[in-house]
Amino acid sequence: MENARSDACGVSHLERVLSSGHFAVCGEIGPPRGADPSEVLRKCEYFRGVVDAVNLTDNQAAVARMSSMAASLLTMQAGLEPIMQMTCRDRNRLAQQSDMLGAAALGIRNILCLSGDHVTLGNHPQAKSVHDLDAVNLTAMMRGLREGHFLSGDEVKTPPELFIGATANPFGEPFLARVHNLKKKVASGAQFIQTQVVFDVPRFEKWMQACRDEGLTEQTYILAGIAPVRSASTLKFMRNNVAGVHIAEEYIQRMSAASSKEDAMDEGVRIAVETIQRVRDIPGVAGVHIMPVMWESVIRRVVEGAGLLPRPDVLESPPAEARSASELTP
Amino acid sequence: MSKLTEKIAAFIERHPTLYRIIFTLENAVKKPLFDCRECGQCILSSTALICPMRCPKELRDGPCGGTLPNGRCEVDPNMDCVWYLIYKRADKLDRLPLLDTVQKPYDNRLRGTSAWINLMAGRIEGVKLRARPKKRSSAQTGTSPLAAAETSDQKSSSAAPGARS
Question: What value does the mean pLDDT take over residues A114-126?
Answer without folding.
Answer: 94
